[in-house]
Design a protein that fits this description.
The chain is mainly α and 152 residues long. Helix content is 70%, strand content 0%. Helix 2 runs antiparallel to helix 3, helix 2 (47-69) packs antiparallel against helix 4 (89-104) and helix 2 (47-69) packs parallel to helix 5 (108-129). The longest helix is centred in the first third of the chain and has 25 residues, at 2-26. The N and C termini lie far apart (71 Å).
Length: 152
């Protein structure tokens, strides 16, 4: 009896995981565009793709920021400033597409997404901007700016 329940629960969990993976595979934000100049493939983007892409983009950027602040190496321009600058690629892509389209093709669904995602993006941005460990690493690079021979 316990084995049957365990198998049923395992099957249910695997089904949910597979469904989530399939949804991610169908979301054009989670793959290369495959278009000239890698511009968004607007024909494939559907309204339901935005919120999961925003959530995943924020999740990925937090992981990237965590990697920067937990890097055991001394802060350098490359491992701190450039890493920070290049963090959030997916989030930047989704934001760029969504907010540009919402300005010219606005509808109730786009408004709902805007209302859901705007406070999430504000909190996300605040969490990064107010990250004391990130600030300390950036300050450490700033403090050595004269010896780094950076172009202005």
């Amino acid at each position: 009896m316990k084995t049957t329940k365990l198998l049923a629960l395992s099957f249910a969990a695997l089904t949910l995981l597979a469904t989530g993976c399939k949804k991610n595979m169908d979301n054009p934000f989670f793959s290369e565009w495959g278009t000239p100049y890698e511009i968004p493939d607007f024909a494939k983007i559907k309204t339901e793709h935005y919120l999961p892409a925003f959530e995943e983009g924020m999740k990925r950027q937090i992981a990237e920021i965590d990697a920067i602040v937990n890097n055991p190496e001394a802060p350098t321009f490359e491992n701190t400033i450039l890493a920070y600058e290049y963090s959030g690629e997916l989030l930047n892509t989704v934001s760029g597409v969504f907010f540009n389209l919402s300005e010219c093709e606005n509808n109730d669904e786009m408004e709902d997404i805007t209302n859901k995602v705007t406070p999430l993006l504000s909190e996300h941005g605040d969490n990064i901007a107010l990250n004391a460990k990130l600030f300390a690493r950036i300050k450490a690079v700033y403090d050595q700016r004269e010896s780094l021979n950076l172009n202005r």
